[in-house]
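can u do me a favor
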């Protein structure tokens, strides 16, 4: 009987987990697709890297999605079982509160192991490849992305406008505005084109125009007439810039002795730990009576998840800044979350009360049985 119940619970949670994961992933990927499409439309990316960037983004999103989708799936399934009084029938068949974890134990540990691999190795590689793909796409941008008749934001932050495109594929009547600290730099030229090389990257070359440089609101502008002027859009230095710790290999982080590296290591391990703790918290959190709202536990669960994740972020910043001792790291947040789960399990199911009173009840049953045996012998 218990085997059938375990299979039933696992099947229901697995189906809900798959559905929730796909829905959340679709939402995040769609949002990322809109951002990438906006960059491509503004001329900051080529359309050929859109699918590649979406793939890398999906891998990175899994570190966020898997703990949340598992947590929500358990809340939805067990909340429905309580609402439909199915859990009462399951409990009546002899399944205790701790036995509800049995069908979820091995899948949770396997999922946490996979999530650990993703967060420590695959996601950083995906983030690094995504940055490199963006940089390569920016280097390969051509004149086709500078569409005449509309304002385009260039890679260096400048705003450009051109009236038309000539037969020799040059932009005509070009206007560019570039902000330099408190000054503004305005370039007006008859024609312009993009030239690229391996050493300098993309360069926007203006022909026959003027450059105005000064402070907005002042009349003292410096005016320079030119026959040819170059404006770098990107360079090889952009490709060789320092990679932040979020893209560093996991093994390299252990070789660094900085607080930032230690915080990054613990941050990558945290999703797998959080997944296990959230599963532990989900079962007592989903308990409700049939008269309660179906979404009460779900709303409370989302609130707890947001607090949990935000506290991890705060603990990471504190560790990087040296506010908290290094030995505490991010572990104290996980410990508090685990203690909250234990308290909820104790309150909702009185698990520890049953454990501690188990010996006393067994002694009472033994004494009662001896008394009944003596009474039967006397009569």
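np, heres the sequence
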């Amino acid at each position: 009987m218990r085997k059938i119940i375990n299979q039933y619970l696992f099947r229901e949670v697995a189906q809900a987990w798959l559905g929730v994961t796909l829905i959340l992933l679709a939402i995040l990927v769609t949002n990322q697709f809109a951002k990438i499409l906006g960059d491509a439309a503004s001329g900051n990316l080529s359309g050929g890297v859109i699918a590649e960037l979406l793939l890398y983004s999906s891998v990175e999103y899994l570190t966020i999605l898997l703990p949340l989708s598992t947590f929500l799936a358990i809340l939805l399934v067990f909340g429905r079982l309580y609402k439909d009084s199915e859990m009462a029938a399951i409990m009546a068949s002899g399944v205790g509160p701790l036995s509800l974890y049995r069908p979820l134990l091995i899948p949770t540990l396997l999922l946490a192991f996979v999530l650990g691999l993703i967060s420590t190795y695959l996601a950083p590689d995906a983030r690094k490849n995504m940055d490199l793909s963006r940089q390569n796409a920016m280097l390969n941008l051509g004149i086709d992305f500078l569409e005449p008749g509309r304002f385009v934001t260039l890679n260096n932050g400048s705003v450009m406008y051109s009236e038309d495109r000539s037969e020799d594929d040059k932009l005509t009547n070009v206007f560019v505005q570039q902000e330099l600290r408190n000054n503004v730099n305005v370039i007006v030229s008859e024609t312009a084109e993009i030239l690229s090389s391996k050493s300098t990257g993309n360069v926007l070359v203006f022909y026959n125009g003027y450059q105005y440089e000064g402070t907005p609101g002042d009349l003292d502008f410096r005016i320079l007439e030119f026959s040819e002027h170059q404006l770098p859009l990107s360079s090889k230095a952009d490709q060789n810039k320092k990679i932040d710790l979020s893209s560093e290999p996991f093994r390299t982080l252990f070789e660094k002795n900085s607080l930032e590296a230690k915080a990054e290591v613990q941050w990558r391990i945290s999703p797998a730990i959080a997944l296990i703790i959230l599963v532990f918290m989900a079962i007592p959190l989903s308990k409700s009576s049939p008269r309660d709202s179906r979404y009460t536990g779900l709303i409370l669960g989302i609130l707890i998840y947001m607090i949990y994740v935000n506290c991890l972020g705060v603990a990471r910043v504190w560790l990087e800044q040296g506010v908290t001792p290094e030995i505490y790291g991010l572990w104290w947040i996980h410990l508090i979350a685990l203690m909250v789960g234990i308290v909820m399990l104790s309150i909702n199911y009185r698990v520890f009360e049953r454990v501690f009173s188990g010996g006393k009840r067994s002694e009472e049953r033994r004494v009662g049985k001896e008394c009944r045996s003596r009474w039967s012998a006397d009569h």
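The chain is about 60% helix and 15% strand. hope that helps!!
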